[in-house]
Design goal:
single chain, 80 residues, alpha+beta, 3 strands
Length: 80
């Protein structure tokens, strides 16, 4: 059995709960009422993603990932 490690992004939702995604696996998204539930659900989603990718002989990203935090300031331009 091959073991993979992926970075996931947890986003708290205003109405409660979390949305979680895997940037290295496009479209691999889940959610949960708690952080623990969201992480469990994304593990299930990743497993399903990998099974489907193998079945259809699609490439599976397994390279090194880096996480960088950037700051962006967006302004509103008058007349735009």
């Amino acid at each position: 059995m091959v073991q993979y490690q992926y970075l996931v992004v947890l986003i708290p939702q205003e109405e409660g709960g979390y949305t979680v995604s895997v940037p290295a696996l496009p479209g691999c998204i889940s959610e949960g009422e708690t952080k623990a539930a969201a992480l469990k659900n994304i593990k299930d989603a990743i497993e399903g993603y990998l099974v489907t990718a193998r079945k259809h002989k699609l490439p599976i990203f397994s390279g090194t990932q880096e996480l960088e935090e950037i700051e962006v300031v967006a302004g509103v331009t008058k007349g735009a």
